[in-house]
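Task: sequence design from structure.
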């Protein structure tokens, strides 16, 4: 237990250093269900919000983690790499928290209910709070892996999202769990069922050419569900897998975030 607590402390300290180096200040977003950890900087009319991945949800295929805080926070590294004037990072429920900040934490919120209505609502509330702090009127949502799923679900209920960007995200969670023959996320909302609400939002979905966790066809099928007038686009980063090397390539990836007019789905390989 002492080793576990020491490890958790080190992980939190490492995250704080990543954020501090990028000028991001820690904040806690107090939502109805959870205390969500965030890091922010800047004020501008457009706020870029980065949402973390699932983190250490499982120790192995059959054992849930006691703490979903990520060892390697790709979402935070992406936020730290963003040069824009106003940036916010949101951890997922129960990541980077302890003591009284861990309210509402239950293992279902990093397993079967990771995309539940209460998680979507809490994340939406945190985005609202970050938006007010930044003085922004428009939002760009960026989500890594499961954070991309959550970003998509949040975007489906907002009118101020001018861009949706997902990275290695299983946008159809039913197809994804079927593909891996794992337990369905029974308490979660599937973005694929809301695809029609998202078609008009400019969006880009990045996939790694070597990603064995989230197959490219899941993204392709998602855009097909949005219909022929989808404002979405897929970009394949050929050498990347699920974890590597998104943050290191963020500056190069930003060149693709120029959204076309609604039209047929397009796919680009880099």
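Answer:
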């Amino acid at each position: 237990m002492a080793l576990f607590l020491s490890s958790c402390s080190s992980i939190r300290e490492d995250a704080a250093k990543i954020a501090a180096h990028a000028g991001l200040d820690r904040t806690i977003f107090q939502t109805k269900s959870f205390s969500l950890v965030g890091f922010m900087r800047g004020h501008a009319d457009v706020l870029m919000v980065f949402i973390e991945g699932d983190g250490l949800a499982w120790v192995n295929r059959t054992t849930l983690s006691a703490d979903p805080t990520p060892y390697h926070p790709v979402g935070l590294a992406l936020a730290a790499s963003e040069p824009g004037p106003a940036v916010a990072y949101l951890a997922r429920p129960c990541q980077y928290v302890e003591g009284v900040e861990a309210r509402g934490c239950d293992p279902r919120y990093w397993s079967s209910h990771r995309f539940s209505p209460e998680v979507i609502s809490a994340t939406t509330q945190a985005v609202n709070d970050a938006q007010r702090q930044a003085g922004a009127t428009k939002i760009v949502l960026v989500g890594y892996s499961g954070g991309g799923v959550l970003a998509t679900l949040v975007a489906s209920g907002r009118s101020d999202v001018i861009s949706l960007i997902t990275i290695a995200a299983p946008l159809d969670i039913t197809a994804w769990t079927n593909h891996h023959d794992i337990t369905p996320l029974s308490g979660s909302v599937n973005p694929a069922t809301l695809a029609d609400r998202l078609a008009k939002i400019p969006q880009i979905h990045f996939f790694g050419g070597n990603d064995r966790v989230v197959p490219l066809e899941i993204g392709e099928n998602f855009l097909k569900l949005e219909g022929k007038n989808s404002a979405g686009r897929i970009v394949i980063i050929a050498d990347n897998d699920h974890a590597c090397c998104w943050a290191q390539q963020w500056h190069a990836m930003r060149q693709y975030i120029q959204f076309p007019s609604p039209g047929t789905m397009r796919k680009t390989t880099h």
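The chain has eight helices and eleven strands.
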